[in-house]
Amino acid sequence: MERQELINKIDKRELKKIYLLYGKETFLIEEIQSRFKTIINPAMEDFNLSIIDGKETSIDEIRTTVETLPFMSEKRLVIIKDFELFKGKSKNFSETDEKELLFLLENIAETTLLVFILIGDVDKKKKIYKTVEKFGDICELKKLEDMPLLSWCREQFENREVEIANSDIAYFIEISSYRDRTSEMTLSDLKNEITKLSSYVGIRNKITKKEIDELLSVKSENDIFKLIDMIGSKNSKRALKILNDMLDEGESVLGIFSMLSKQFNQILQVSVLKQERMPQNLIISTLKIHPYRFNKIYRQTKNYNNSGILSIINYISDSDYKIKQGLLNDRLAAEIFVAKYCN
Description:
Elements lengths: L2 H9 L6 E6 L2 H12 L7 H4 E5 L5 H9 L8 E6 L13 H12 L5 E8 L7 H9 L1 E4 L5 H14 L3 E2 L1 H11 L10 H15 L4 E2 L1 H7 L2 H15 L3 H13 L4 H23 L4 H8 L3 H10 L5 H19 L5 H13 L1
Parallel strand pairs: 1-4, 1-5, 2-3, 3-4, 6-7
């Protein structure tokens, strides 16, 4: 089921008894969750709304909750978040518990509305997924495309009472890299950037390409391109200068590593397709990269071979893990990175 279809059905109260919401777009998931909450009278929310931590729950808690009758209301809303059974085995559920849960889902009361919410992907081969699919509805909250994305951004800008042309919104979307296939950027990130821009110009003022370039992540992205250029040309002194400047300006090592990983993944993809003699315009459309960014990436493929790129990606991934586990100082990891790949 598509997002807008689900919203329409919730608004019309054309509801099934079970739903599964999943995906990486937490903003859209929260939007649908709030929509579901509208079916509950706010004055009776304490009696008719239960939110359960799926990582810690048990079959007994779920059974008791879904079998509880609503109080002075037609429906009782039960939300179960991060229920691990959709991804694999759950530490709190035996095979017997899972069978009982499937029986509960197949025979859930008309007065109960059960909504499972998961961030990320699910295993569509799991019995619980197939049961929800049979007796309820499933909605994957994916990234917005083209016109829905443009409309969403325009609404966000209008809510903040600033003026911006559609062409400048399109430019804002492109430089954000939201639509790049490998991008981890979400609508929540876009919302933060929109808030930043709107605060910068002030209420009832206009945002143009100039303000977008001045304020947003174009500088960080350009610094990453420069850093990759300096590493490719083995200029360790200049590479360290760019790295230290980024850190002094507030960028985190993990943030820089994330941008580097994304960039080197794209360099690798372009390099492979280039070696397969794919035309440049077809590479752009296949990888969904903005032509401006593609030209820079294409140029950088000349400074790196595929094995070298894979070594860099693996180093970043390994360092990211060690930093998060407290096994390696983040700044030291970044400096080793520059020294290692400028040799």
